[in-house]
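step=predict obj=GTPase HflX n=433
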Amino acid sequence: MKAIIAKRVDSGVADTSEIRDLAAAAGYTVIGEVTQSRRADPALQLGEGKAETLAELVDETEATTVIFDNRLGPYQTYNLGQLFDAGVEVIDRFTLILEIFGQRAQTRKAQLQVELAELRYELPRAEAKTSLAKRDEHPGFMGLGEYDESREQDIKDQISRINDELKQIEQTEQHRRERRRDSGFDLVALAGYTNAGKSTLLRRLADDLTVEENEGLHPDLEATAESQDNLFTTLGTTTRRAAIEPRDVLVTDTVGFISDLPHWLVESFKSTLDSVYRADLVLLVVDVSEDVDEIHEKLVTSHDTLYERNEAPIVTVLNKIDKVDEDELAEKREALSSLAPNPVAVSGKTGANVDALLERIDDELPEWREERLLLPMTDETMSVVSWIHDNGHVDDVTYGDEDVVITFEARPAMIEQARSRASELGTTTAESV
């Protein structure tokens, strides 16, 4: 698929590197670009003369798609479509993002979120088509699609249905998180912009995965988290157990943030971020090899997103230190100190300094307490002892003729559960060591 990139900026020079990466991720071959520095034209986004230049380039190159790195309104899409031959598609960055999401969605939840985002994007266009049809405008609507007067209500009905199903999925996932926490697991979430290296870092932290393994796109909560130099590799959430003794830690990789997302797209994927908002600790991963101003901007946006609902501590992880030298790393640490006062610098790819990150995770998570329980010797006592073994770190068990003394370390919540289970056995004593 041959595509021409178009981008307008209010001032300065238009940077098309990200939109080119997005186009490549969606499978397009970019064969040219048109940029302009001026205020947005309400009818065409670009100025009329520049729009004509774009049309000439499309005709010369026989491109099949024009990709705008600007948000196009329904009527702008319609007006631009009139400039090109039939069969030339006009899309903006958000349509492109949805294409990528649709290609990568592997789980039911991700597929529903993509469908929801597509419908929210289509709704104002359906309304525009209704308006144009009433004015007897050109059939086909030049990029807006064919007109169907029932489509607008169909979209609203589908949005309602998908929202209901996503709520049910989220309830199931919330119950799963609660069971894990009740079982003594600490929950850590990886957050940050797309392509920051979160999936590679997850593989580095996980007990049962290696960075070298790549088994294809992962299903939700299953064995793998793909590590690729691609945008939006992770759409669902992948949760793996991390090696942080004596804790039981689960680390979840989530969909990456991306700049300049419209409200309707953020809303469609907000349930994916619940695994971040409800974690015990958030690791905010950034690509330290990027320009420091870009890192700063991404950190600001990430903090705005996280602080909206997140209550867990946030640790900034400066990833990809294998791509920068020590002086550059030190300069960026200093420049970002206001947003990341005590970051951990690592390389998920090589494993450099990952041990320090594991120690930091242990320090930031809720402290474990040591507990000693004196249990009566009953038929049910061994099941309680076994449960403590499964959910805590047992230091010692002493069996007497009439009682059992068990000393262990665990999260405060798990200790309270152990005491409750022990009290059901009859006479028991407990003490914090």
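step=describe
Residues 2-101 form a domain with the Rossmann fold fold (CATH 3.40.50.11060).
step=end
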